[in-house]
Protein 1
Amino acid sequence: MPKVPSIPPFSADPQSLFAAMAAVRDILNGMNLSGAEDWATVLGSIFTTTSLEAVNDSWTTAGRPTGASLWVGRAGFNTTLSRFEVWSSTAWVQLSAGGVTDHGLLTGLGDDDHTQYLLTTALLAKILLIDGAASGIDADLLDGQHGAYYLDAANLNAGILPAARFDDTAHGNRGGGALHADVVAAGADGFMTGADKSKLDGIEALAEANNISDADATDLTDGGTTTLHSHAGNGGLVHITSQTASNDATIDFTSGIDNTYDAYLLIGSAVVPATDAVTAMVRASVGGVFKSGASDYGWARFAWNSGGTSSTTGDGSDTAWDIATSIGSAAGEGMRFSIIIGSPSNTSLRTLCSGNVSYDHSGGSLLGISFSGRTVGTIGTSAVDGFRFLFSSGNVESGEFTLYGLAGA
């Protein structure tokens, strides 16, 4: 083996160490080494205690390296502090454990080779195989209950069941059965009591909500407007309709006049003509057409005034029933009347009427009249289905008009 050249002595500072390493490289490149013994001899000759200053790798705090043996990066173990430390150019700093601190920088993260951990795909595959009530996993429960609990209507305690959940349409088939059966006979218990059913059956036709049938006046209390009338079988007034005049040419009643009642009562109150000294008249309709032929009406009147004089007058064939003449329209003047019209639907007899009138005469006196009338001419015994009030000229400036049916007359 060739002679091993010597290298220049060097100290532990970086520049001296790098020069020594370069010399070792040049020596090794120029030698032909063939065995382990040659390498050992060469290395032993190069690295001797005489060629490199002794550098301690441990020290006490008091014996830390100084001077030429101290360079940036010099590291060793401090036996006083029991730590590894390194010179930072200004101070000795404890060495950290080092290694990779970011999990994402690790290699082999996609390998499924660790028995303690599973990849997310493998974990999902295993969970999907575990289900059912016996799985011990609560994922298939809602508030601790399985889906079947919420399909059972017996567990519902709120909300409204949709119509599709019922398999019948009759109320009696719901829960409760006979307790809610349809009431078909008076006195039978069901959706309402038998007593309530009997009350409803006893309400007369055309009764209104503000009417009291067969009421005991001692049972009435204040607080509203009430119209009292009797059942048809006992006789009495049945309100049909009312109108308020407001400068109208005529006041017509065309509904509710048929064979329901034996007679009808027409009342006019606070009636004022728009024109002074006019005649008040009433006409009838047949088949919905008001008749005004020259000989369709006959009438007779008895009149008396506040001066104590009286008179009679009449007409057997006229265009209307004249119930009063020379009615005043000055301030404070007016009239009121009541007319009973009997059996208007009876085609075997003429329609007859009678009534009373009180009014202010256009001459200033008070007059009272009692009158009667009948249908003649083209009306004759035809069924009458309407009544009209009007003046001989001008409009009905104001007034209240009401039509009643007379039950059991």
Note: Residues 48-55, 229-233 have pLDDT under 50 and may be disordered.
Protein 2
Amino acid sequence: MLNGGFVQFDSHLVPSSGSYSVSLDFQPATTDNPGITEFISQGSSGGPGFYLGTNGFGFRATDSWGPFGSYDPADPHRLLFSVDSVVGKSYLYLDGTLLDTRSFAITTTTGGTDTRLGSQFAPYGENFHGTLDNVRIFDSAITPDQDTDVTGTPEPSTMMLAGWELQRRWLCGSAGQRARSLALRLRPPVRKLSPENTNGCHGDYNQRHRQP
């Protein structure tokens, strides 16, 4: 459960151009209006920045898209953001159903804050409170059916650049507390972060890095 904290990596994990996809599971902690919060972000405001998150009971997706759509905060959901530079379109799917389309391939800045889970890039907060799980980043445009098939390589030929199962989520008291040790370069299948290497975050955090 995310209680206003976030994890920051040491690089930009989401491709900034070309074809790429990001998918994740989320559920807010309560059914109250969450306002503006972010599941994942990187970059800077006006860069344009990359982020996927809530706008009340709807969504925002990068500086180029939002607010739009709707979801029920009482239920868990799977969100898929897919950019196809070949056909020049961007797609957002909710629970396997196409939610909205943009008639251009979204690109974002290569500068700014490195990838974060659970918060907006600096200097903003916009922290997500709730469950965030099964975050996946791909190097091409994928469909919901391909997203659910993580045992093989989706077609067209695609590499899953990163994937995490967040078995026991970090508990942080403020936006300034982060688990910097959670980096893509870590190869062990299970990494357990103790309180002393989470910059103030308390409680165990088990992170499993999966590769295709």
Note: The two ends are 26 Å apart (CA to CA).
Protein 3
Amino acid sequence: MTGMRFHHTRHANRFAISASLLALALIAPTMQPAPALAGNECLLDLDGSNVPSAGDGPAGATAFGSLHNTACGTFADASGGGVGSRNTATGYNANASGDSSRNTASGANADASGGESFNTATGTSANASGNDS
């Protein structure tokens, strides 16, 4: 009887190990790092149809790092993470990026970038950039 019990226990251990490896193989592919937070990027009428369509898109605008960031304009950048980031960039190539910031850039090539700052640049090529400002 002892030999049978040992034989049964050995198979049970093999089954438990196989089940554990199977579970790990099924779960491991879903264990991926969280994606970067994307903010709001407006939809631009890239195809000139004057209605929302598949040809429309953000035209290179980026607002990564915080759900509160907003970028609208070709190549507008309102990216930045950290505590309280709420960056807003509107206009061609406007830059309101910065971690832990509330920067606002409005106008073509306006730059209100900087980390841990509250910069505001309004107008074509306006510059109010800097860290901790």
Note: Strands lie at 40-41, 70-72, 88-90, 104-106, 120-122.
